[in-house]
Amino acid sequence: MTDLTDQVAIVSGASRGIGKAIALLLAMQGAKVVCVARSAEELEEVAHKTQGLAVPADVSDADDAQHVVDQALRHFGRLDILVCNAGVGSFGLLEHFDAAEWDRIFDVNVKGTFLLCKAAVPHFKSRHRGHIVGITSDVARRTFENGTAYGASKFAQDAVLASLRKEVRSHGIKVSTIFPGLVDTYFNDSVPGGPDAEKTHLKPSDVAQAVRYVLEAPAHVVIDELMIHPLTQEW
To answer: Transmembrane ranges (predicted)?
Structure first.
């Protein structure tokens, strides 16, 4: 298994929920974590717990995304892991859905992944190594009513990562995609800890363990896609 000790990892959306769980677990495994999110106050708290670096940023902004990677390189001297986790979503009938909200969802979920990868890949190529992990959703594999914007963004995010995987494999760079089902987080203004959450939802720590699983796979093992089902909590 690959040792994560002293590996430098960027985690976007790290201020709460899945991203926070990923950042904390990677730090527990010895990684040096660059925590990224728009909420500076919550981010500082997570960075303090991970003894890592907090970089407040909007990943849908090209300058901010480049700044994140530049700060990681300036502070730690290299980058080994990029976890594209930042995501937003809202739901409703297509005919009533606000166009500006559609753009916001695509900006964070798709453009944010694209921009962070665009900023990180040149460094990974220069070292002939690196691992990108994208957190998408099981809705990148299915459709549902009222989910046109969110579902389309997750299909698109998956396509970005799948195409990138083919572009960079010959450079020694891995790209893995994780497709969680329902997760008990603050997503879409939900409040974690609902009465049925343990029966119907994954925990953020389940997704974090899936990330750890793909990152710790031996170098010769390629795990392109990993689906996590909320009822069995298996992958």
So the answer is: none
Active site residues: 150
Strand 53-56 with 8-12, pairing = unpaired
d(CA 85, CA 97): 24
Question: Is 1 part of a structural domain of the chain?
Answer: no
Looking at the domain assignment, is residue 107 inside a domain? yes
Distance of alpha carbon 161 from alpha carbon 132, whole angstroms = 9
What is the per-residue pLDDT across 153-186, written as a single tens digit (0 to 9) for each? Answer: 999 999 999 999 999 999 999 999 999 877 766 5
Transcribe 29-56 into DSSP letters. TT-EEEEEES-HHHHHHHHHHHT-EEEE
DSSP codes, 62-96: HHHHHHHHHHHHHHHS---EEEE---------GGG
Write down the pTM of the prediction.
0.91
What's the number of CA atoms in the CB half-sphere (13 Å) around residue 218? 2
Q: Which domain holds residue 143?
A: 8-228
54 occurs within a structural domain: yes
Residue 234 forms beta bridges with which residues? 229
CATH number at residue 219: 3.40.50.720
Number of domains in the chain: 1
Does residue 22 sit within a domain? yes
Neighbours of 203 (CB within 10 A): 18
